[in-house]
Structure formats: C-alpha cells, structure tokens
Amino acid sequence: MHCQVLHIHPAVLKTIPYTNEKKKVTPVIIGDPTGHITLSVWTDIHEEQLPVEKDKVFKLENLSFKNWNGGQLSSTKSSVYTSVNQKLKVNKPNIEATSMYQTLQGVFVTVESTTVSLCIACNSREPSPSTHFYKCKVCNCKQLVSNMKKNTDLKGKFKPLDDSPLIHLSLNNHQLTWLPDTDVNNIDDLEEQLLQTSMTITYNKVNNYVETTSPIDSV
Q: Which residue among 10, 185, 187, 189 is buried most deeply as judged by most CB within 10 Å?
C-alpha cells in the first residue's frame, strides 16, 4: 500500500502482557485518497529513529491488521517501509481525535483481580486449568499445571484528580512493581496498596488497557 504519513504521535513505552518485555510503540496516522488509519510502529526501547517521516509518502509492506475500532495496523518484524517520490491527495483528519493514548493522574477506587496461568512455551492464557496436566490450545505444548507461570489481571474504576468521570480500566500486576513495600504476586497486598496510591497512568483509549504506571512525583 502507498500512503502519506500525516502525523506522528508521541511514543508510549509498553510492557508486553505475560512476557513483561518492554517495547516502544509509536502511533502513526497514515492516509491515502480513501481515508486514514492508525499504524502502530513497534521498536526497541533504545531505538530512537522511526522508519517513517512526517509528510512523506511510503510504500508499506508486511503489516498486521486488526479489525476493531474501525481497523488498526501494526508493524511486524518483517515490515518494509520504502520512501517513494509520489504525491497523494489526502484529507487530513482531526489529529487530536486520532490519538490512541491518554495520560492521567488519579487513584483506583475499586479493584478486582483474576489470576491466569500462562503456557510455558508461548505465554498464551488459560484462566483456570482443571487438571494437573495441560495441553496448550495454541501451541499444543504439554506441561504440568504446577510449572505454568502465573499472572494477575486487574480491573477497576480509576478516579482522575481533575474530577473528570470515573474510567473503567484494566492492567497487569507486573506494571506495578514500583509500589513501595508491595509483593505484586500477593493479590490481597496488591489490591490494598493499589487503592491507597495516587499514580500517573497512560492508557489505550480504544480498549481501556493501562500501558504504563508511575508514581505521581516522578512526572
């Protein structure tokens, strides 16, 4: 596909669920004469230069497409970005409305947790294996349930400090390792501390998933 880079939003540092690997994702608004779409460009956290530039036209290959919220594109390890000398007639969108992420300060006023087991080979989720022996539905790896990794999904209502409406958000326990004197694997301890701590969060406005958390005094 040939498209023009209309806008590059600030990058967001993401913790990949269940692997806890940190990556940088940059939402890029691209367009052609038929419309515009968001392209999430994934890069290493130490990589500073993007493979695309604002206002230039590129030929994009090997992207991943997800059919939700009107459609979203993501880069892959095999994505190719080729600059082309071409002009496109593109109607530029409201840039502010295209931002996928929002940063807020506030506190969780409710929280509930669910523990999930993760396949030791591919990290796919299994909420509660009912046997001692488990065969992964994704990669078919056979494993003892006792050897599977554990993660905790958290959901709750977040109250912004600017008195805007409560927001229903979800996050992962390993995004909260900075909480003082808290064992993030101890659910009761984690929930209690979460309800008492004001923080800065950046969340995805499409699926209300919290991407990053930090103490307010670190901003």
A: 187
